[in-house]
Hints:
By secondary structure, the chain is of the alpha+beta class. The chain has helices at residues 33-36, 47-64, and strands at 6-9, 15-17, 28-31.
Amino acid sequence: MPPRRRWLINADGEAWNTWDAEPTRGATCRVAHRMVCPCLAPEDPWPWGTALREENGRRAQRLFNLPDLRELPDAS
Length: 76
């Protein structure tokens, strides 16, 4: 689970989010129900990474699936 999606519980019961910090060993950690519920569509924890992966896929498609030059009309 990405650190920003985890909530730590203090000894007094207060919940707080550490953002990018890893919890200390033995810390009580909780996650939101929507992150693990099988009845809900999964939330994308890294939307920028998903967008970058999709763009890289489009670029690879354009770069490596070039048209066959024999099928193009002669420009001369």
